[in-house]
Amino acid sequence: MSETSLLVEVLGNSPEMRIVDFFLDNKLFDFSKKEIIEETGMSKATFYKHWDRLEGFAVVRVSRTFGKAKLYQLNRGSPLVKELLNLEKQLIKMAADRQKVAVRV
Q1: Each residue of 4-54: pLDDT tens digit?
Q2: pTM score of the predicted model
Q3: Could you give the CA distance from residue 10 to residue 23 in angstroms, rounded to a whole number?
Q4: Top-level class of domain 6-104
Q5: At what angle do helices 44-56 and 15-25 cross, to 10 degrees?
Q6: CA–CA dist 18, 8 (Å, integer)
């Protein structure tokens, strides 16, 4: 991840948040664990240490299998994910409103 999102700025740069943020940025796609590890830039050990919690809270779900690999995507039906999406929208709106004010000044 090259740029910090508003969600990570507010909720912290934990491994779980980095994975969640990755999925929020890629809502329409599914990924293997290997792809997630590569895209988030974390080690396998760190990823696997935190992955079970995200599955346990139903933040991510298996979308399909491709050979032996499972592909995962954001679980948009999860109440927790819905709240995260709402929070993300509110943070973007607040940032846009701040920029409008800054441009007027």
Answers
A1: 788 899 999 999 999 999 999 999 999 999 999 999 999 999 999 999 999
A2: 0.85
A3: 17
A4: mainly alpha
A5: 70
A6: 7
